[in-house]
Amino acid sequence: MIANLAQGVRAFTSNVFLVDGERTVLIDTGANFDVVDAIRDRIDDIDAVVLTHTHRDHVGNLEAVTDAFGVDAWGYDPSIDGVDHAIEDEETVRLGDHEYVALHTPGHKNDHLCFYSDDADVLFAGDLIFQNGSFGRTDLEEGDREALVESIDRVLERIDEDLAAMHTGHGPSVTNNPYEHVELSARMARQA
Fold first, then answer.
1. What is the total count of domains within the chain?
2. Residue 48 belongs to a domain with what CATH number?
3. CB-based burial, 61-91: b 16+ in 10 Å, e otherwise
4. What range defines the domain where residue 55 resides?
5. Could you tell me which of 98, 107, 106, 101 has the C-alpha nearest to residue 87?
C-alpha cells in the first residue's frame, strides 16, 4: 500500500509517501505539518526513511520522524546532515513489499534519487518529473538543465511502457499512462 500523507495539507511541503509492507518506509518527510501524527494515524511504526533529495520541503520533518520512530534516514549523500546511510546508484532497496532500483538523477539537486520497481511497475520520481510534462526546477543551487535532461532520459530508458504509477514529489500521482508523462517531460525539458 502506498499513501501520500501530505495529500490535502495546506502548507509548503513535498509529498510524503508511506509505503507499507514487509519493510515499511517513509519516502521523504515533507515540511511544515505534523507528519508524525499522520503516520501514527495509519500505522504504529516505520522501518526507515528514504529520501529522494534533501531540499528543505522534503526533509523539514526529518528530525521529528527519526526521533519519534527511532529510525535512520537513507539518501544519496551521507555527508548531508540527517542522512545516516548512503544509497548508491543502481543499488536495490526494499520499499514495502517490492525491490526498487535507486537511480541517481541529478539536475534538480546533486543528491537526487528516483526509485523504480519493475515488479510493482511503480516509479518514485521525486522532483525530477511531474505530471503533464512538467519537470524539476533548475534555477536553484545545484540545478543543471543539461544534467536534468540526461536524468530524465535515463529514467525513460529504464522504466517499462506499462508503468502503472508514478509518484512525484509535488502534485498528484500519475496512474493514467505515466510513461507518456515521462516522455513528455523529456521533450519539454529540452525546449524550455
1. 1
2. 3.60.15.10
3. bbeebbebbebebbbbbeeeebbeeebeeee
4. 2-191
5. 101
C-alpha dist (Å) from residue 135 to 30, 66, 125: 19, 29, 10
CB 113 within 8 A of CB 75: yes
Q: At what angle do helices 145-158 and 178-191 cross, to 10 degrees?
A: 160
Residues across the chain: 192
**Cα–Cα distance between 116 and 16 in angstroms, integer?**
17
Only one residue has cell 548531508, namely 80
pLDDT in tens, the chain (192 residues): 999 999 999 999 999 999 999 999 999 999 999 999 999 999 999 999 999 999 999 999 999 999 999 999 999 999 999 999 999 999 999 999 999 999 999 999 999 999 999 999 999 999 999 999 999 999 999 999 999 999 999 999 999 999 999 999 999 999 999 999 999 999 999 986
Helices within 31-177 (DSSP H only): 35-40, 56-59, 62-69, 145-158
Residue 3, phi then psi, degrees to nearest 5: -130, 135
